[in-house]
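debug: dumping io for the single-chain case to check the tokenizer round-trip. Nothing else runs in this session.
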Amino acid sequence: MSGTKFGSFARLCKDSPLPWCNLFIRQISRHAPSILLPPSSDLTSAPVGFNPPCAINRIHHPSTFEGGGGRSDGNVALIVSCVFCFIWVLFLITRVSHRSAAVGRIEFRTFLLLYALSLPLQILTSSSLLSQSSLPLVVLTSLHAGLVVSLFFVLLWFGIVSTQWIDDGSLSSVIPMYTISSALFILTTYISLDIALSITSTFGPSDPPQDLLSIPLFVLTQIWPAAATLIYFGIMLWVILHVLQEIPPVWYFVLSLAIFVLAQLDFYILSRTICQGTKAKIDGAFIATLLNTLSIAILYLGWTHITEESWDDEVYRPYEGPPQPPNSIGL
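debug: decoded output
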């Protein structure tokens, strides 16, 4: 059955507004345009997705969903939620920067910075603002994919340095983190561009075309984030329960993971239902974005409960010599 093969994006692109679908629309429009059905067949107004039964058409173009009517406003809810979350994450970055003695401060701040950068890209790749199959959309989607893959590596690295096996903020932590995350960014971006533009025959086109098949992209954007997240939370539970031997902070991390899982369920399972229920006005992407950001905010709270905010003043107090005996008048 089409779309059930490992590495296939067909079912995902039909039921959810997954930005990586933009890459395959460009590929199919060049190699097998006949399999594109409405609303995907009209590339000037096509939404995010591959032959979706319900989706938000490109801004200022007529809605093709039955009962939708009028012209599409794009995914306004997603745009608003991304802007709100971007501002909130910037606030979290400033709070993290002020915790000078906290373990993993630089690594966590890098994670938040990458997440903040992903939000404007999400607006551009998932809000039906740019024409499908256009080169700008393909390039931005490829950069978005690379950023997301790097983001989850930094999250995993943040968990590793939390064990204190590597000195957080030191060159032994920062250099590997930036080197590997940059390599993943470049690799994923290249694979994404190759899928869309057929630069080589290594990563495309999909065979058969309707399967939207790419095992490397599937592993990097679907399997890797889930694996990195589970490993990170496993490490943090070990640190809290085994090393710190505390119970209360565990609930912050459990709640953060639960909300993250809910965000994925909303995005991949409920998007189609929400779209149909609102006559193609909104989908599950904006709720998933809010939940992802809430998950990170709770993660920040958990981190603050297991780290120190600042160094003890005694650490920086200069040596003043041995204590002096009291003088004759008792002063």
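debug: round-trip ok. Residues 6 and 241 are 36 Å apart (CA to CA).
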